[in-house]
Amino acid sequence: MELKTILEYQKQDAELIKLENELNNNKNKKIFTQMLTVAKDAQNKSNQLEKQAGELLKSYEQLKKTYEDNIKSANIVSNKKLETASIADLETIEEIAKTIINNLSILEKKLLAEAEKVNSVLNGFKQTKEQYNMAKDKYNKHKQLFDAENKELEPTIAEKTKAVKKLEAGIDAALLTKYKQRRQDRIFPVFVPCIDKACGGCRMELPSANLSTLKTKGVLECEHCRRIIYLAD
User: CB–CB of 113/67 below 8 Å?
Assistant: First the structure.
């Protein structure tokens, strides 16, 4: 096992990880990612408002038709010749008129309530549109800033990636697989020295048997933190 190659590989990989983290934690990336969520929420809200507006419009049209039908009935009653009507007819007409007036009063209130709901939905549409446009503008602004920063880092990342790939050829395949598994599990650094008979990562003291294995094989997997321990010169 070429320890020097492994440690150089880890060094180059650490620099690559640093660059990757720099991009992942980039404030402009965080902002434009958040704006994607805001824009999506605005679209969902708009769809809900559109559905609500359709239901309100349908309800409004039904109430309006009922209101107009009552007006027609009221006109019919008002056009009757009361001079020739009997007392019984007058009483019937009076009851009908009272019912129509009561219905019209109720319908008028319902129409006004529906109109207020429609206005509320329209205001909701306006606010949602403003929110979407704001998110779109911020997304475009910060996406451009991130792309510019990313473009600056691309050559360095490509160079580091190439260096890491080149060093992989000199590392035992099984050991490299373990390294990559731990890197993926966010265990880093993966290779650590044995310091005062303990793991250089978690500082857990190694049993005598493990120390003997380390001296024989040159590397040992820490039972506690899963890092790969090596003997420092």
Answer: no
From first to last of its 233 residues, the chain has per-residue pLDDT tens of 578 899 999 999 999 999 989 988 999 999 999 999 999 999 898 888 888 888 877 887 877 787 787 777 777 666 666 566 667 765 676 677 777 777 777 777 777 887 888 788 888 888 999 999 999 999 999 999 999 999 999 999 999 999 999 999 889 898 899 999 999 999 999 999 999 999 999 999 999 999 999 999 889 999 999 999 999 87
15 token code pair: 């620099």
* Predicted TM-score of the model (pTM): 0.60
d(CA 112, CA 72): 20
Q: How far apart are CA 156 and CA 141, in angstroms?
A: 24
